[in-house]
Design goal:
Length: 106
């Protein structure tokens, strides 16, 4: 297949204060106390990229926290997605909190 080169960044948007500070603090605490797992970014399912960035993740499984995230994002980020693209967010993938650490190729 032909390789297509893009000379501009992918489209994106910025949503200031997408999450309230209290919720950010809860997420940080959840990460610090949660079950952490590490892995490379850039694995394709069959191969691991040796020079890929590494990240530590925690899956968000707490129902109250999931509800708080959905509620906050539905009022900020999801609303902006609808304004920009006309797309109504009705589904999402699982939430996970990730941390990159420079001392571990992050």
């Amino acid at each position: 297949p032909e390789t297509i080169r893009l000379d501009r960044p992918a489209p994106g948007f910025l949503v200031p204060n997408a999450l309230p500070q209290e919720l950010c603090d809860r997420l940080i605490q959840y990460f610090e106390n949660g079950k952490q797992y590490k892995g490379p970014i850039g694995a394709d399912g069959n191969h691991t990229v040796s020079n890929a960035k590494r990240r530590t993740d925690v899956d968000v499984n707490d129902r109250d926290l999931l509800h708080a995230l959905d509620d906050a994002l539905s009022k900020t980020v999801f609303t902006e997605i609808r304004k920009i693209s006309g797309f109504q967010v009705t589904h999402r993938e699982r939430y996970k909190i990730g941390r990159y650490d420079a001392s571990d190729k992050g």
